[in-house]
């Protein structure tokens, strides 16, 4: 089922902000799941051969992401590369929580420039860890087929979390916001982006929309499940 997700994705560019120099932008949400950025940052800093400046850059649109991409030539792949290195480091350290955070981070929605736009899949770089390679980022909830796409991502994420010894129900924390209005000229949609919320404003402001039920997560990771 997850292998079909790529067919729902289309290439889109987005303009956002850098971590160190915020500017006027559309659909800011890169800090909405801050707890996972914090954990991924700690794992990434254990060994960062590509010089990625911070995990937040991987959640920005390409025009801003490139400023923190280090040696990653394709900004479209920065989120995957960040997650992949953080996962590698956490695995080497025997850190299950770090591995789970890297998996969830990989599944988070990236900023897009407009309500309803999708962000492109990474095609130029292959993840070293199959657990990371199995996951794509959530898409704007107002985009075409978003409910089906994001549900499939969450269920696959649950499988990968279970495989490393984490709680598969944590996959639901990768969910995004309620769909925005396609006619919203501001491009903001239903988002939040609070820098000083260590948990993540999508959680503390009760804005998270879960993509699946707890029972569906359990079914996805059950030994007999091959979907």
UniProtKB/TrEMBL annotation:
Source organism (scientific name): Pholiota conissans
Residues of the signal peptide: 1-20
Annotated keywords: Signal
Name of protein: Uncharacterized protein
Top-level taxonomy: Eukaryota, Fungi, Dikarya, Basidiomycota, Agaricomycotina
């Amino acid at each position: 089922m997850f292998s079909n997700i790529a067919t729902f994705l289309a290439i889109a560019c987005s303009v956002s902000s850098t971590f160190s120099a915020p500017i006027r932008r559309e659909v800011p949400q890169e800090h909405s799941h801050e707890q996972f950025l914090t954990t991924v940052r700690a794992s990434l800093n254990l060994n960062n051969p590509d010089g990625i400046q911070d995990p937040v850059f991987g959640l920005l649109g390409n025009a801003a992401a490139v400023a923190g991409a280090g040696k990653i030539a394709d900004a479209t792949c920065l989120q995957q590369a960040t997650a992949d290195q953080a996962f590698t480091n956490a695995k080497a350290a025997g850190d299950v929580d770090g591995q789970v955070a890297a998996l969830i981070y990989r599944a988070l929605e990236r900023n897009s420039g407009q309500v309803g736009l999708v962000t492109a899949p990474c095609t130029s770089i292959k993840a070293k860890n199959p657990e990371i390679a199995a996951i794509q980022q959530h898409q704007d909830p107002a985009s075409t087929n978003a409910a089906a796409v994001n549900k499939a991502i969450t269920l696959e994420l649950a499988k990968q979390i279970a495989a490393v010894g984490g709680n598969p129900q944590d996959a639901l924390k990768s969910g995004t916001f309620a769909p925005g209005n396609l006619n919203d000229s501001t491009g903001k949609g239903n988002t939040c982006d609070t820098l000083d919320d260590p948990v993540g404003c999508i959680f503390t402001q009760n804005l998270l929309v879960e993509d699946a039920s707890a029972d569906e997560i359990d079914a996805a990771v059950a030994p007999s499940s091959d979907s």
